[in-house]
User: What shape does this take?
Amino acid sequence: MSCETETAIALRDAGQKVTPQRMLILCTVRHAREHVTAPGLIEEVRRAYPFLDPSTVYRTLSSAAALGLVSETDMGAGDTEYEWIGKDRHHHLICRSCGDVTSLDNSYLDSLATALYDELGFRADLGHFAIFGVCAPCRARSGAAAGD
Amino acid sequence: MSCETETAIALRDAGQKVTPQRMLILCTVRHAREHVTAPGLIEEVRRAYPFLDPSTVYRTLSSAAALGLVSETDMGAGDTEYEWIGKDRHHHLICRSCGDVTSLDNSYLDSLATALYDELGFRADLGHFAIFGVCAPCRARSGAAAGD
DNA sequence: CTTGCAAATGCGACCAGTTGCAGTTGCCAT
DNA sequence: ATGGCAACTGCAACTGGTCGCATTTGCAAG
Assistant: This one.
């Protein structure tokens, strides 16, 4: 089964229509080598179909996020990034000092999800987190790291 | 020491000026009974000082967040909420189904912060998280809860 | 008290994202 | 094949937030 078919089925199963625009948008997200921002995505899909309206892109992304197909992550500074949710979930650590973004394996949040479920009955969608802080190199560089 | 004095000292220590506008904005956030949105805050401070410009509010909130005085939390649907960071940190569980927002004690994220620090050297600012998912009542109501 | 400097403000322009509406179209039933 | 309905699109208006610039002002030094 091709990835396009999978996408179409997911939309149809959710009672939504499969339109050429939506397929173009979602397949572009799916095949992006890294995270995409909405403006970047708009620019890219309009290369293939110049008449595609930005509001359609935003609406499609919003629907896809609600369906759990795509993650929406606030990376700070007003940048919301989108990524296709594959089988592997991961998160990001963002350094406030140098701006470096590194990946964080999902296992770190697994125990949190388990605790929320076991103790509170809350099934958390821990799809994609951007965790802000200060990275090890910056802490070492600032010299105040000893105070932590 | 009054809370106003504390706020003034925090600003001054960070090399920033203590202006009447900023004091009004930050004290309004500090004394708000619940979270405030930027538009709501703008409306409230302009009741006291109608000439206060919205860009000043956004700038002040941004500076205060960078200083760790105020938390910025994306509550979904484009709503960013601000809250004064007191001694007790807490987080929110937001149900995608019914929209209910409940508080989550910080202890749930303490072990995550510890793991990030011990294993990766990353000092996380886990100031305020909005965790999306489905709450226990909604899961029970949907009947599909057994499949989890 | 005066001066100087850099942070802050207000204003208006700009940008990104949202929303309502009229028209279009996917998809299902007949 | 036809009809109906509701989801979707495109468009334009709107809202919220950002940014550059000129002016103002807090604050420290003399």
Summary: Residues 15-17, 19, 21-22, 51-53, 55-56, 59-60, 78 of chain B lie near DNA strand C (CB under 10 Å from a C1'). The longest strand of chain B covers residues 90-95. The interface with chain A takes residues 66, 74, 93, 95-96, 104, 108-109, 111-112, 115-117, 120-126, 131-136, 139, 148 of chain B (CB under 8 Å). The beta strands of chain B are 36-37, 70-74, 80-84, 90-95, 101-105, 123-124, 130-134.
